Amino acid sequence: MRVEISALSERVEKLSARYAEVLEIERDGDWFLLKLQEEVGELTQAYLQVTGRARTKGRTDAEIRDAFRLEFADVFCQLLLLARHCEVDVPREIERKWLSRE
Length: 102
Hints:
Helix content is 73%, strand content 0%. By secondary structure, it is an all-alpha fold. The radius of gyration is 16 Å and the shape is globular.
């Protein structure tokens, strides 16, 4: 199933808002950016494991690869949330920055 970025962003926003409500988190600009940084750190750890440069913590190769993919998803979704918060139209800006050079 393919999902448009705007639809994905909307779904991620609903989940994040619910998460924040349950945990009584104020999702301000600092939170969005710091949460993204936290997720990038977790992705970095997973990348080091998948490339054999960190302890496996008893996980199999398949589990390590799966964890890396999940951390990648966390970073992407958190980036979408930050973009929403900062009113960045991601497809538009990708078009302007990257695809205009084709």
